[in-house]
Specification:
With 445 residues, this protein is of the alpha/beta class. The chain has helices at 4-14, 19-31, 33-38, 40-44, 47-51, 100-116, 137-151, 170-184, 207-221, 239-250, 273-286, 292-296, 326-334, 350-358, 366-369, 371-386, 392-416, 423-441; strands at residues 56-65, 71-82, 88-94, 123-128, 160-163, 231-234, 254-255, 257-260, 263-266, 300-303, 314-316, 339-341, 362-364. The protein folds into two domains: 4-187, 3-Layer(aba) Sandwich (Rossmann fold), CATH 3.40.50.10860; 207-364, NAD(P)-binding Rossmann-like Domain (Rossmann fold, 3-Layer(aba) Sandwich), CATH 3.40.50.720. Strands 1-2-4-3-5 form a five-stranded mixed β-sheet, sandwiched between helices. The chain has a five-stranded parallel β-sheet with strand order 7-6-11-12-13, sandwiched between helices. Bound molecules: NADPH dihydro-nicotinamide-adenine-dinucleotide phosphate (NDP). NADPH dihydro-nicotinamide-adenine-dinucleotide phosphate binds next to helix 10.
Amino acid sequence: MGTIHDTLDIVRHRNPGEPEFLQAVTEVLESIEPVIERHKQYRDAIILERIVEPERVIMFRVPWQDDRGQYHVNRGYRIQMNSAIGPYKGGLRLHPTVSLSILKFLAFEQVFKNSLTTLPMGGAKGGSEFDPKGKSDAEVMRFCQSFMTELHRHIGPDTDVPAGDIGVGGREIGFLYGQYRRLANEFSGVLTGKGLGWGGSLIRPEATGYGCVYFAQEMLKSRGESIEGKVCLVSGSGNAAQYTIEKLLQSGAKPVTVSDSNGFIHDPEGITEEKLAWIMNLKNLRRGRIREYAAKFRATYYEGQRPWGIACDCAFPSATQNEITGEDAKTLLGNGCQLVAEAANMPCEPEAIHLFLGRKILYGPGKAANAGGVATSGLEMTQNSMRLPWTREEVDDRLHQIMITIHKNAFETAADYGAPGNLVVGANIAGFVKVADAMLDQGLV
Ligand code: NDP
């Protein structure tokens, strides 16, 4: 009772057809084995069996109308995974690949990530398989309003505070917030990633990417190195990718790739600030495809491929889950890659992680490396509660400090549990212990 083996059997049996959820649970549970062995109270209280079961899963119909008056229906989800240390918190994803399995894996990861941030936030995730690509602003608005019409009764500033994720940026958060405000008749910090004029925080848009580079700098420092001059591969071209590139440039590194779901571009001369501004305009305003970069600047476009075959010092996967396979990992290692920091969630397949850890390169798992996004969402909640905005410098300093603390905590915990340098073990155990202890303190929750 209460062992990792038993719990994985239960998860397999209870969640058929949910491979991503099983992958995330397996990865976490296998890495926290030392803490379960060391502490009998977790086994006695079957904490593992409890922690893998969401507190609540909400699934709902989202009907909407397109610009031609045709009717459509999508499925909306909110997975409220764990609220032992604070209100549920986690993003909303709008992408055709969204499924119950993917959102459960993300919600599960979110619990440990939020715990690591040092802020009081539980874990959740939500979204829909609705595809915002190719839709007009009015269609996206009608979808968001319909989605919030159901979601609003399940969330609140002290209950559950959603944010953005893939396909949910400033535009979508605006539509969602407007509808919440009308239905609830309150102006509160119920969503994060809000516009600056109506409760948003400075640095929130930058936070995931900036935080990931701050984390990478800490990893490099632990080996007496720095990011300056390093050739970096970045995948994706959305929020996480854009600000990873911006911070890499500010830190003297040389980012040479970006991608979208159709392919990637390689710019051997390096993506500069001017080129990044062009990418931001392309992706955030014109909503075009990354292949246009190659026509505009001197770069090569690779249709249907990912950037991992390009020689590099560091890789920053910033698009989506399972985008680095075992084969990709072999290629990266063969080309001399010495650091992988995950701006995306679970971008590396288990075999890839195994290879990185085996070769003892610097590997920063997403729940630590990309925790800057949700941490700054936590800072947005604090400012909303105080009704006082902080300056850009103040938020950035706090973000930087949080990333340093997360790295230190994961690094020291890994050493404490006999796996020095293994940030997967360190981050998972450090995140787990705080939540598990809160659950024990609170009785049968
Ligand atoms: P965006 O929607 O802004 O950008 C996503 C990018 O990834 C786009 O370039 C998109 O290409 C690409 N992409 C998405 N799905 C796929 C796919 N199945 N295959 C290939 N490429 C794909 O999302 P974010 O930048 O916010 O999110 C990126 C990653 O970062 C996700 O894993 C997310 O969970 C994670 N993350 C984000 C945080 C945030 O604050 N935004 C916080 C922590 C983690 P296309 O436009 O063609 O779809």
